[in-house]
Each structure stands twice: as C-alpha cells, then as structure tokens.
UniProtKB/TrEMBL annotation:
Species, as recorded: Gordonia amarae NBRC 15530
TPR repeat domain span: 224-461
Protein's name according to its UniProt entry: TPR repeat domain-containing protein
Basic and acidic residues composition bias: residue spans: 660-671
Record InterPro entries: TPR_rep_actino (IPR057037)
Taxonomic path: Bacteria, Bacillati, Actinomycetota, Actinomycetes, Mycobacteriales
Region named Disordered: 655-674
Alphabetical list of Pfam families matching this protein: TPR_23 (PF23275)
Length: 761
C-alpha cells in the first residue's frame, strides 16, 4: 500500500456527475482492502513463526525472539491501518450512496410532476399550460403558474443543498482515506517494495516498449533518485555505504535488462514513458557504477555492474582505427580520425546528462573522462572525428568532448581520480593500467578553441576549494593540486606543455587558476610560521620553473601566475615578520626565481612559435589594483587588509609598450616582488603579533582602524620616513632584520639558479 493516495474530493457535483458515479465500486474496494489487511496479518504470523521455530541458542535465541516480535508488530500495525481504511471506505460509501439516492429520487419526483432538472440542479417548470382545461388568462391559470413556480424554487434549493451535502461528505471521505493512506505510507514506504523482482519486471516492460504503471514509475523514481541522507553523504565523502539488499538487487536487475542494447536502444527505452524515466534509468546506471555502493552480503557496485554495452564503451580503446581524407559538407577534403562507436559516445553523453548531477564517485564518470582524454589525444592533429556514420567537424567535436567532461566533472571524486590515477585502472579493459599524466597530456595536446567549459568543470574546483575546511574536500584538493603540479612541472611532458597557452589559451588560464593558490605549497612554505598547511607536496625548483614556463605562454595565465606569485611572497614576508626564524625568505626567493626563469623560457617558446602573433599580444605582468594585490586570496588576516597600492610600487605603471619592450627582461618580472612591499608585509606581521603593540602606539599615523595602512604610508614622504624609523626600531627591539630577509631571499634565488632539481630543503 506504500504510496497510496486518497481520492480527490469533488466540488459541488452536477446532476450528470451524480448519475455517472459508480459508487458500488467502493464496496469492492472495501472488500479488497479488508482482504489485504487479513493477508498482511497472516503474513506477520508466518514471519514470526518462521523465525521463532528455528533452533536458536543463547543470546541468539533472545535476539531472534525480539526480531520476530518486532516483525510481527510491524505487519500487525499495517493490517490494523488497512482495516480502519476499509471501515472509512464503507462509511463513505454509505454516506455518499444515501445522498446520491436522495438526489436521484427527488429528480424523479420532479419529473413525475412535469418539472425538469438541469445539470446545476435548477428545477424548471415543464407543465403544458396551453393544453390545460383552464381558460387563458383565467384566475385559475395564474394561480397554478405561481404555485408551480414556488415548487420549482423550493425543489431547486433542496436539490442544491443535497448536492452540497454530497460534496461535504466526499471531502470528509477523502480526508479520512488520505489519513490512512499517509499512515500506510509511513508503515510501508515505497522503498519496502523495492527488490530484484520488481526491478526485473520494470526492465522487461521497458525493453518490450510497455508503458509503466504509475506505481512502477514511482518505485523506479524512488529507487534511483530518493537516496537517504546517509547514503548520499557517504558517497559524497568517498566512503563505502551499505544499502538494503533489495535496493541493490533492483538496481542490478535494471542494469542487467540493459545488457546487449546499444546506446541508441537504451535512449529509446524512455520513449512513451514519463519525462523522468530517462533520468531514473541514467541515475540507476550511475548509482550501480559506484564502487562505494555495498550490501551486507558483500555485493559491490562499480563498472563491472553497469550494462555490458556501456561498460565496453567506457573501457575499450576506441582509437585503434586509422583515419583518412574525406570531404566536408562543402566538398573540401580534410583528414578525419576514426573513433570507434563515436555515435555511442555521443549518445552515452546524452543519456548520463539526464541523470543526477550530484552523484559522486561513479565509475561512469571516471570512464567518460578517460575516454574523452584518449579521443582528445587521437584527434589532436586532425581536429576532426568520424565513426559509425557520425562525422564531426572541429567545433562539433570540441563541443561533444567538452559537454562530456562537464558531466563527468560534476563528480569531483571522479575528477580527482582522473587527475591522480586513483581507482582508474577499472576503466581499462584486459588488465590495462591507467597512467594519469598520459591522460592529462591527452587533454593538453588538443586544440580546444573556446570550447573549454568541460575543462573548467574538471579543474576549476581545485583552486576554488583551496580554502576548504572539511577533511575530505581538503583531501581532494591536496591530491589534485599535487598531481597537477607534478604533471605541469614534468620534463617528460614539457614538449606538449610548453605550447599550452599557444594551443589552448583557455586551458592555460584554467590551470593557472587551479594551481596558483598552491604556489606556497610548491616551494614548501605552507606549514611554516602559521601559514596553513594543505598537505600539497613540494615541487623541485626545476619543476616549478616548468609550471611557470607552461602556463606563461598565455598572457592572461601569465598575469595570474606572476601576480599571485608576488602575493605569495608578500604573504611569506608577513609571516616572517611574526616568526623570523622560519626559512620563508629563502622560499620567497625560490618562488621569485622560478617565476622569472620560467617566464623567460615561455617567452622564448612563444617567440619561436608565433613571432608575428606575439608582436601583437605580449606577455604582461600587471599588478592587480584591488584589495587582493598584496596577498593570496586564501590568506586570512585580522584585522582586514587595507586597499593596497594602486600603482606599481617602483616606477610608473607599465603600458602595453612597456610590456612589449621588457617581456624578455627577467628584471622586469622580478620587479613585481617589490622590496617595499616585502618590508611593509614584514612590519605588518610583526605589529600584529601580541606583545608588539608599541608599533601602533609610537607610530599611530601609520595605522588606521584596520591596522598598518599601505595607503597612509605612501601618501607622503613624511610618513614613508616614519615607516623607515618604525622598521629600524623593530630591528633594535629584537624583531626581524630586514637585511636577513634580503639575504635569505637572495639565497633562495641563487639556489634556484644553481641547484635546479635539488632546490633548498
């Protein structure tokens, strides 16, 4: 009875509606409800007896007896509720039948007296006065008309009152049935009907093209999209979660019934069904594809459980065929790369796009990301693909691949695994091994043009979630930032990555936004002197140079990387002010030199590749003119930072011509890391450390309500001189030595120049 609904009460019924109501069916319904209640009560007795009659020993016997009574009690409660519902139906039948019969009898009585009753219960005089014995215009004729008019009026009122009574009784009846229905919904939820048998039946009916009943649709919807909070939470946190065996069997049977079907046939299963049917089927496949889905008996989800056609589409190598020259729609010949089952890749994307966007940790999403990477690599030279009658031009191919990655990238766990290689071997058939860097290179080799929404979804969360505080979110960003940094810094993949900003500027920008919050991690600064430690692995200085070299081949990515690197150095100076024993000056120098040398290499690559384009589009390293100029976005200070410098600290703001002239000059890049900004950051960090309140007290003009103010310091020469005096007094009182910062900074610069991969540890 789970999911039953009460009858919908009618408004005041018309005469035709009363005549059409088949109230006798309520008697049949009452009998069936009574029989069902008896059957459930009998089933409860059988379940109780089946448990208690087994040979239990010791504590097991006590537990079995308690379980038996609990089961019997649940069955009995449902049976009692059904009995009460049956009584409500019987009562409703009695009320409605009496009122309906009264209405019909009064209508017959009116008709016998030569009155008619219209559909709204208005009584109309149908007496044939013309053939009556009375003389026209006689007193008797007038009196008769008046008498019959009064009768009609009275009968209209009585009939309409009875009709209103029927409506009121029907409303009360509907409320009573709904009350019992809701109670049964709680006692016997739809989920209790979910099992392998109903799953197999639904799958068979879909395959046969039969329309699902409303009840079957509801079961399918609940089983695939109405997961309980614990299940969805566990999956979103990458934890195994146990679901009832019946629920798992339902999903497995749905999946098995899709075996042997092509993607086109799977899409067609929802034709003629409700709009949500495709959503339910796609969600079922994604859900059974989650390896974290378990049962107490040991069943487990994953790619092995998904329909065989989808499994082979996700795990097979689709790029083994050779391509050829073919004419496009305009008759111009181009080379196309043949991708096996290309039409099914498209249809799989359409299918999974209909599913739940919130499901996390599915092998479906892992497999789709992997396959797109391999297609991306295979088509990197031609930009065109064909297969199974489908031919895609560059924009069409990039749209398909981007859309697929958008869907897969909604699953951050799958995106993390694609980047790191964790749990990805299941996406390879015949015992194959997944290599994460090869698949990252598959994406970076391709020219995506402006179709980068899918790439954005796959990688942007790494930077967006840099300040995450929940343990699992921190784990995801830590793993992804470490792997992406290692890939971009790898010498093995440099030939591809050094042209990244040239081939796909948008991807270079996406990567820059993903990794810049971790530049401090890459030089080992996080965890020192109060800088939060996100657990991201260090890079060698040579690796970090290659990160800058790869991303700085696009001007926007270069502006992001170089400006954020400068902010990181200011942040290190701030924390150095509070703890001068930490080796932050050295780390800052390392970061600056890696940026400088990597940028120089990037410019050389661009000059070699696109000299004519580069003459019009130079690398620019512009300071951000907002509150975030001095420090990284994820840095948190109390009190809040001031609006920082609105111009370059040294020299005038560079123009486009300046960038054109100086783009190969490492000194210009190095000037982003201004000593004045470092000194300000050191004194700021020092002044905000407890015990150093003397700075504000003795130099109040350097402060505003939020702390040491960059704007005030640089508003006139007098305050700049006062700042210098405060910094000098800081050194005299045992605070950090600015010269020590410079020495450590220079040590980091020289170590990066000299030691390469060894760096400074």
């Amino acid at each position: 009875m789970g999911g039953a609904e009460g009858p919908t009460p009618v408004t005041v019924p018309t005469r035709s509606q009363i005549n059409g109501f088949q109230l006798e069916k309520l008697a049949t319904a009452s009998e069936r409800i009574t029989a069902l209640g008896r059957q459930i009560k009998s089933d409860g007795v059988r379940v109780r007896d089946a448990i208690t009659e087994l040979a239990w020993d010791g504590d097991g016997a006590n537990a079995a007896e308690l379980r038996a009574e609990d089961e019997y009690h649940e069955f009995r409660r449902a049976a009692i509720e059904l009995e009460d519902m049956s009584e409500s139906v019987s009562s409703g039948l009695s009320w409605l039948s009496d009122t309906s019969n009264s209405l019909k009898l009064r209508v017959v009585s009116c008709q016998l007296q030569k009155f008619d009753v219209n559909d709204d219960w208005v009584v109309i005089d149908k007496f044939d006065y013309a053939s009556a014995d009375a003389t026209d215009e006689s007193t008797e004729d007038t009196a008769l008309r008046e008498q019959r008019a009064e009768i009609a009026k009275t009968e209209t009122v009585l009939l309409q009152q009875l009709a209103q009574t029927f409506s009121d009784q029907d409303t009360d009846f509907a409320a009573a049935v709904l009350k019992h229905s809701e109670a049964l919904e709680r006692l016997t939820p739809v989920s209790s009907a979910i099992g392998g048998g109903i799953g197999d039946r639904i799958g068979d009916e879909l395959a046969a093209g039969e329309t699902l009943t409303e009840w079957e649709q509801k079961i399918l919807n609940v089983a695939t999209t109405h997961l309980n909070f614990e299940t969805t939470t566990d999956l979103s946190l990458g934890r195994p979660t146990t679901i009832p065996q019946g629920h798992f069997d339902f999903l497995r049977e749905i999946s098995r019934d899709l075996d042997g079907l092509t993607m086109k046939e799977i899409l067609a299963l929802s034709d003629g069904q409700t709009p949500r049917t495709r959503t339910n089927l796609a969600s079922a496949v994604e859900l059974i594809g989650c390896p974290g889905l378990r049962t107490e008996s040991g069943d487990q989800g994953g790619v092995a459980q998904v329909p065989d056609g989808i499994r082979s589409l996700l795990t097979s190598d689709l790029t083994t065929s050779t391509g050829g020259m073919f004419p496009d729609k305009d008759g111009i010949s181009h080379e196309y790369t043949v991708i096996d089952r290309l039409d099914e890749v498209r249809d799989l994307t359409t299918f999974i796009a209909a599913g739940s966007p919130n499901l996390q940790g599915s092998d479906i999403n892992r497999g789709m990301a992997k396959q797109i990477s391999e297609i991306s690599r295979a088509t990197s030279q031609t930009g065109r693909a064909m297969g199974n009658g489908l031919r895609l031009e560059p924009d069409e191919l990039n749209n398909l691949m981007s859309h697929t990655l958008e869907i897969a990238g909604q699953d951050k766990i799958a995106a993390r695994d694609f980047i790191t290689g964790k749990d990805m071997n299941v996406t390879c058939d015949n015992g194959g091994r997944y290599v994460a860097n090869d698949h990252l290179e598959g994406l970076t080799q391709h020219r995506w043009g402006t179709r980068t929404a899918g790439l954005e979804k796959m990688f942007s969360w790494i930077g967006d979630d840099a300040g995450a505080t929940t343990p699992f979110a921190k784990e995801l960003t830590r793993d992804a930032a470490t792997s992406l940094g290692n890939y971009l810094g790898s010498e093995e993949y440099l030939d591809t990555n050094k042209k990244l900003g040239i081939n796909t500027p948008g991807l270079a920008q996406i990567f820059a936004n993903a990794v810049h919050p971790y530049l401090g991690s890459y030089v080992g600064a996080e965890g020192l002197a109060g800088i939060p430690d996100r657990g991201v692995d260090d890079l060698s200085t040579d690796q970090l140079k290659r990160v800058f070299q790869s991303l700085n081949t696009d001007p926007e990515a270069a502006a992001t990387m170089n400006t954020e690197a400068a902010k990181w150095q200011n942040l290190m100076a701030y924390h150095y002010g509070a703890d001068p024993d930490a080796p932050l000056a050295t780390r800052s120098g390392m970061l600056n030199q890696a940026m400088t040398e990597g940028s120089k290499q990037a410019v050389e690559v661009i000059s070699d590749e696109q000299k004519s384009v580069y003459e019009r589009k130079k690398l620019t390293y512009l300071a951000i003119k907002d509150v975030g100029w001095l420090f990284p976005q994820t840095a948190i200070f109390e009190p809040a930072l001031q609006q920082p410098v609105t111009d370059w600290v040294i020299g005038k703001e560079p123009t486009q011509a300046d960038a054109t002239n100086d783009h190969t000059n490492p000194d210009k890049i190095r000037s982003l890391n201004d000593p004045s900004a470092h000194n300000y950051s050191i004194l700021k960090g020092y002044s905000e450390k407890p015990g150093n309140e003397w700075v504000r007290r003795e130099h109040p003009n350097l402060f505003d309500q939020d702390g040491l103010s960059w704007e005030k310091i640089h508003s006139n020469q007098r305050l700049e001189n006062d700042f210098d005096r405060a910094a000098s007094e800081m050194e005299k009182r045992g605070g950090p030595e600015l010269s020590d910062w410079l020495q450590g900074y220079d040590k980091g610069v020289k170590a990066t120049e000299s030691h390469g991969a060894d760096g400074v540890k």
